[in-house]
Design goal:
Blueprint lengths: L12 H4 L7 H6 L9 E5 L6 E7 L3 E2 L4 E2 L5 H4 L11 H4 L8 H6 L9 H4 L4 H4 L9 E2 L18
Length: 155
Amino acid sequence: MKHDAPPSLRPRFWERVPLDRMTAAEWEALCDGCGKCCLNKLEDPDTGEVAFTRVACRLLDDHSCRCGQYAIRKQLVPECVVLSPEALPKIAYWLPRTCAYRLLHEGRPLADWHPLISGDPESVHRAGVSVRGWTVPEYAVPEEEWEDHIIDEEP
């Protein structure tokens, strides 16, 4: 099992560097490629509870579990939330419990299947943590039916 970051990144930076001190490359490398942040979520206005749905943003590539238009996503989907060290404290609660950004923000370690730990970008899919193959695109489901597509997000 590989435990080092790619050569362009500082070794094991995620254990030593605060989120707000990471380079842009380190910040981006934290993304495990699960695709869960691209799932539409429903938030209860009374309790603040967040429910994940299997309804995915129209830009999500269901196979790679990555945004198909990452560089211009905010132009194409104005409501897209761009993760940043500044935004993280306000939005961490709606990130998946397995998300590296959320884990590190909460002072917890990355999972063994995370590509930075395993050295393999496919490990997230083999671990069954990604959305590969089971999402439905948002244009195929009317918003009033999203509630019918709520999923259990595993811890």
